Amino acid sequence: MNIDSTHPFYTGELILPTSTIDVVINKILYWYTYSIPGGVLWSYPRVGKSTAIEYIKINKAKIFNIDVPIFSYIADTKDYKKSPNNFYKSLLNKFNWAEEIDTSHIKGGVTDNENRLVKLFTSRAIDTPEKKLIFIIDEAQYLGINELELLKSLTNKVRANGVKVISVLLGEPELNDKRKWLKQSRKTHLISRFFAQEERVPGLRSRKDIENLLRGYDLFDVKHKGKKCSTSNYFAPKAYREGFRLQNYSKEVWELFTRTSEKYKQPYLDLEISTEIFFIYCMHLFYKINKQDNEELLLTTQFLEEAMTPEVEKLIFDYSQTIVDYN
């Protein structure tokens, strides 16, 4: 049987709750509840911050108990080179303003486009019970001082209209370094607005983290091709009917990642597994499980190790070196 690469697990549409996502949710929920104007969530690359934001956007009504407006923007290396007007245009394009006003391009100067953003933000939140919105900027380490000043002006004007903006900056360790630089430069107005609090978002750090994720594959039903069942059930139906559950192998999988990671990490650093790399490993694992599905399927140590392909191990090595470089 060939693996079904159109399944949400392989296309990336399946997002399971993880310890990484829990940290992001809890922090943003706290900032939202207590109207913290802005905070920073930073991590090493490939931990899964962006995936966590997608999870929050999909499940926001359940998380916040209301359909809170969420705007998200991915900064890039060119943002700091843009003129103020072009930066605002980038935001408008991302938020589909062009579609809303039924035009293929955005005209006007800085003031015009800032006012459009203010109107857009205000209109989405002014009639909600709490009159708040969440503004998320991913890869925020690419924002320069000028962009932060523009965002401060924008959020000030939205606040003047009666809407509180909770700004969330996501990025890599350079973002936390930028906060330190702003403090040294006495840019306290930007720190208080966008860097009021900071939190490092971890990867997977315990067997329990692994077990919870694998349990999600066993229990979380996914709709695909007219069928609704868990990922484990879909790719190993024969074994699943006889009681096969991937979560029962969390100890062995954790030990495998521990052995592999220990070869590359420095002794003074705690073990941490990239969430994204773990997902890639699971893709290889389900491929093998699918090919060998039977009523008596057992995952031996050799079976699990064979899913740890050279490509996956190389990703673990690169991730370990990244952590070393940042420390």
From TrEMBL:
Gene3D superfamilies, per this entry? P-loop containing nucleotide triphosphate hydrolases
One Pfam entry name: AAA_22
Matching InterPro entries, A to Z?
AAA_22, P-loop_NTPase
Superkingdom: Bacteria
Give all residue intervals belonging to the ORC1/DEAH AAA+ ATPase domain. 41-177
Coiled-coil regions listed in the entry: none
Would you tell me the protein name for this molecule?
ORC1/DEAH AAA+ ATPase domain-containing protein
